[in-house]
Amino acid sequence: MVKFNRVQRFLLVGLNLLRDSQWSRNETWVSSHDALFFSVFMEVTVSKMETGIKGTSQSPKSAASSNLRYAGYVARDAQMKPPSNLEILQSGPSTPMGECLRRYWQPVCLSQELTDVPKAIKIMHEDLVAFRDHSGKVGVLHRKCAHRGASLEFGIIQEHGIRCCYHGWHFEVDGTLLEAPAEPTDSHNRLKGTVCQGAYPAFERDGLVFTYMGPIDQQPEFPVFDGYVLPKGTRLVPFSNIFDCNWLQVYENQIDHYHTALLHNNMTVQGVDTKVAAGATLQGGFGEMPVIDWHATHDNNGLIFTAGRRLSDDKVWIRISEMGFPNWMQNASVVTAAPQRHSGPGMSRWQVPVDDEHSIAFGWRHFNDEIDPNHNGDETACGVDKIDFLIGQTRHRTYDEMQRAPGDYEVIVSQGPMAIHGLEHPGKSDVGVYMCRSLLRDIVEGKSAPDPTRALANAGGSDTLPRYTSDTALKIPRNADKEKDREVIRKAAHQVFAIMKECYVLPLAQRKPTILRRLDELEANLV
Question: What's the CA gap between 133 and 99, in Å, rounded?
């Protein structure tokens, strides 16, 4: 019989809790698990340090007085650990996460990148070529020609499909071989019936090119959400941001909302130009430390946070941003805090793997007078590897600029090409990140129910699909007791989420009016 010491027992308990506990499967975060989860995790953290640094057990007093100081020499081997959680990090063909991602429509480039010549792209380890033929159809094909392997990035776009420049083999956007001009008639006819170029279904929407790389008999409908078309007059402006690291460390940054009050709140070197400092700082209330809870959604196929902040003695801001697994995310306004009573998304994006050490964020910035009444956003600053908000979102600055005014790009990419989760020492603020990983793991292991969003999209109908992403402003008088005030804010945030869930099942025309009416009722009951 194997015997475990105290350190090993806590590590096993912590691992089992993280991977298999009820909290990761419940529709909402259950607060009764909070103390248990973190007592275990803090024990795990201390135990890892005790074991990793000394290799022998000793009293907490001894550990605190000696093991936590100048521990570089004894902790150095831990820095060389290989990445773990590979089942949710790796995205190549036949990997668990790679196959999961391939069951969803993925953006692969911007429409503006499709010109009179093909666009070479790499998505989830596959070398591909994207193009728009002269009839307007979009093709996404394997890059190497099925004949002799010459790259179709040098192919010649045709009225229908593309022609390889080497021997003129002509392929339709679905991969069908239309012509092999050097072949005699019998060989030509045989080849047309037996050879095809690898191809994936593709289409364009609002400046993004999407493709489906999974089994063709499982191809889903593309889900169209409320925020893509509402409020009336919304403009979706496409963009991409390239990251030199694994897709997951970028994706999970979405649910780590505490960093907005720290990294994006004057975290600059003293003496930095005031314009640069302002450009690296989120304005209008983001600097307030939020009251956050996390909630699994859509039968554990999604995850949101509810973040409440007090903006004044009588105004509270409730922010909800969300993930739709495996790699879609949506933010509320990114330029100001709750400018209206209730507003929708400011950005939708997908974090798409290139390979295991590179990824690209493709998405839309939403522009309308509801989320940005003062027109602080800049549509012209969105595009190929550029975005209009916050310095530090892209890789195009000098190293000196990055050091003096770091942003999301620096903190995410500096974790390494594949972040080593075994080096982390999680705190209570990291619950969302660990929920995200656990829920993703459940999905790739087949433990989660099917995504109901997919069923709704496949069912069709005239309605767009609702999501929870929103900013809400409520009039709530400040409580003189700071902790009681934070609990009031927490309660209000949960009730806003409950209202959003209540209205989820309503027809499109009823959703927004009902939300506004229910918010009025909520506010009246809270005052």
Answer: 29
Q: pTM for the whole thing? A: 0.88
The strand pairing partners of 465, in sequence order, are: 225
What is the signed CA dihedral for 172, 178, 183, 186, rounded to 10 degrees? 140
Strand-pair partners of 119? 130
Cis peptide preceding 326, ω within 30 of 0:
yes
Report the alpha-carbon distance of residue 183 to residue 180 in Å, rounded.
6
Query: Are the beta carbons of 294 and 255 closer than 8 angstroms?
Result: yes
Enter the tokens of residue 247.
Answer: 């897709």
Residue 188 has pLDDT above 80, yes or no: yes
> Is residue 304 scored above 70 in pLDDT?
yes
Residue with tokens 């330029």: 335
Q: How far apart are CA 355 and CA 357, in angstroms?
A: 6
Residue 468, helix vs strand vs coil: coil
CA distance 138 to 211: 10
Sheet with 208-212: list strands edge to edge. Answer: 105-110, 208-212, 202-205
The residues near 38 (Cβ < 8 Å, ≥ 6 apart) are 428
Q: Are 45 and 64 in contact (CB under 8 A)?
A: no
* CB 288 within 8 Å of CB 297: no
Q: Which two tokens stand for residue 406?
A: 């770091």
Instruction: List, as one string, the DSSP characters of 336-364.
Output: SS--SSEE--SEEEEEEEEETTEEEEEEE
- Rounded distance between C-alpha atoms, residue 183 and residue 191, angstroms: 9
pLDDT, tens digit, for every residue of 312-343?
A: 999 999 999 999 999 999 999 887 766 689 99
The side-by-side arrangement of strands in the sheet containing 170-171 is 156-157, 162-163, 170-171, 177-179
Cβ atoms 268, 276 nearer than 8 A: yes
Distance CA 30, CA 16 (A): 17
